[in-house]
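User: Last request for today: this protein with 6-O-phosphono-beta-D-tagatofuranose, please.
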Amino acid sequence: MNTQYSTVSTGNREQLPTLKVVNRHCKAEIALFGAHLLSFIPNSDGKERLWLSDTAIFDKSKPIRGGVPICWPWFGGIYPDFATNQVSELPAHGFVRTQDWRVIGIEETPESTVITLSPTQLGLFGFSDNLLTYVEVTFSEKCSIKLITKNKSEQPVKITAALHTYFNVTDIHHTKILGVEGRYIDKTRESGIFEQPLPYLISSETDRIHLQDEDNLFEFIQVNSQHDKISIEQHGHDSVVIWNPWQEKSKSMADMQENGYLDMLCIEASITQGTVLAAQERHELVQIIG
Ligand code: TA6
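Assistant: Here's the final one, the structure of the complex with 6-O-phosphono-beta-D-tagatofuranose:
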């Protein structure tokens, strides 16, 4: 750690070790479990960008509810195996958000603090241990989360993935999403395909996979909630997932407070249709929060 800036210190959330970042631009906290970003507060307005459940579990028995879960090397509960075309039932959202990660780099400059982490276990659930991943988080006026995949094998491999970000909204009833239009798969309506009505408002359980096309790139999204505006920039995705469990689902989740749905909204930079990495190829899925 460069003592000249010394922007990183160790902390914890209950039993989980974390790294705390305090620099000229922001304050933030990331858990080593799951490389899970828990908090990002820009100094410009002092407002927490990320939502974290009051009843989130920090004992490694399940993913942390809130912040930015890292979903890799698959999104959702199924993995469409590239080689065998078999679809397997697997734990939701991959195998890295529920394991310890290690810090492999900290870079501190006046412009930013960059923390890079890698998982401690690869090659699970039939994946090659030559399929590598890293998370590189840059803390500055904005927070950039980069999920890097490297296929160090000699075979192509297909992945799905997501930066499953839970955003803090003042009031879901007065929240509008800008920059997400077009066709989407509605997981609350038997995965039918529908056209997004505008303005994009949330008024019931919402679980939508918006499919990127030449007219809808989803690279710049804004969430306006009463007086708060969150800007989101994304790259390397093929879709964007928008999720709010609403009242009944919130009640049914032990790690989510009953009215939790009122001040959260997931907007996830995601690869839901699948990306094939050729041998030795690298891919980056990026979300920048402002
Ligand atoms: O990204 C939306 C989603 O796939 C929803 O269907 C819901 O399952 C959510 O993720 C949360 O999943 P989790 O496994 O973290 O409870």
